[in-house]
Design brief:
alpha/beta, TIM Barrel, 2 domains, six-stranded mixed sheet, two-stranded antiparallel ribbon
């Protein structure tokens, strides 16, 4: 009977998916979501009926609340354009509300990145590259891109793994790279950092991320050169000055006190710069769930945009 254990373990995946799991139970994508993607990809009916089997009770669920006299279609006003980083050399203008957060090539496949890039262009929204560097497949679709700089500095590092301004300029020279984002930490790996196993470091991945083929690649639990709020703001200014493009911050919101110190430091820098060129080093702030990293929100900081 012991030998059947491995057979039952393998068959269990099949039975759970098709016989026991409810439509909304599986993670990260449940059956209802997969079926919707499949219908849409085949040109089928992608509309959904009123009513939902999705659990809307968890904090952070997106809801569209009712009102007694909703706006008629003919009275609707187009979404207004906003400018991110208006005092950058190359500010970014957009009308998008919902955008695509970071998912690295390597974590998701080539067809997935291509589909997201093409879809983002068609929808007029931006696509975040994730910390795994910029791949050709992000660029092929022609979408507006946010280049994410993680703790390993993938794509903008030298042979020793140090931050490389030359690589940063090369990335910024691409027209499709519209903004940059500094990732401080990740909800899925709190306090420990990450590892890309040697078996996954192919020649293609190594070339994109500027790492060695067939060797483990470590993402530190933080940026080694950033030890406090002042150094964080200095790094922001450095990236923004080199690229001429807006830069944002992504962080896991577990503790809150450091945000007060960050805003105080930014306000102090603004007062100092006001007589010269009124601008803030930080143009965007993105938050991530400290428990699982799945709920993400990218917000503009009105008090910090000049």
């Amino acid at each position: 009977m012991g030998r059947f254990r491995y057979l039952f373990t393998k068959l269990g995946e099949f039975f759970r998916q098709y016989f026991f799991a409810m439509d909304r139970e599986e993670l990260p994508f449940n059956r209802a979501e997969r079926n919707w993607v499949n219908r849409a990809s085949e040109g089928g009916d992608a509309t959904t009926p009123f009513g939902s089997t999705r659990d809307i009770r968890p904090t952070g669920s997106v809801l569209f609340v009712n009102c007694p006299f909703p706006t008629l279609h003919e009275d609707a006003v187009p979404v207004g354009e906003i400018t991110i980083g208006p005092h950058c050399e190359l500010p970014y203008k957009t009308r998008s509300i919902f955008n695509i957060s970071g998912m690295s090539y390597g974590a998701i496949s080539r067809p997935a990145v291509l589909a997201l890039s093409h879809g983002a262009r068609k929808a007029g929204i931006w696509l975040n590259t994730g910390e795994g560097a910029l791949s050709p497949y992000h660029v092929y679709g022609g979408a507006d891109l946010v280049f994410q700089i993680g703790t390993a500095k993938y794509g903008v590092r030298d042979e020793r793994g140090q931050f490389d301004e030359k690589r940063l300029r090369e990335a910024a020279a691409l027209d499709t790279v519209r903004m940059f984002e500094l990732k401080l930490s990740q909800g899925a790996k709190p306090g420990k950092g990450g590892i890309l196993p040697a078996a996954n470091v192919t020649e293609e991945i190594a070339q994109m991320r500027r790492i060695s083929v067939g060797q483990d690649s470590i993402s530190p639990n933080r940026h080694p050169e950033i030890n406090n709020i002042a150094e964080l703001v200095d790094f922001y200014c450095r990236v923004r000055d080199v690229t001429g493009k807006p830069i944002g911050l992504k962080a896991v919101i577990g503790a809150y006190g450091w945000l007060d110190r960050l805003f105080e430091t930014l306000a102090s820098r603004l007062r100092h710069l006001f007589s010269e060129t009124p601008r803030s080093p930080c143009d965007r702030l993105a938050g991530q769930c400290c428990e699982c990293g799945e709920r993400r929100r990218s917000v503009l900081m009105p008090g910090l945009i000049w």
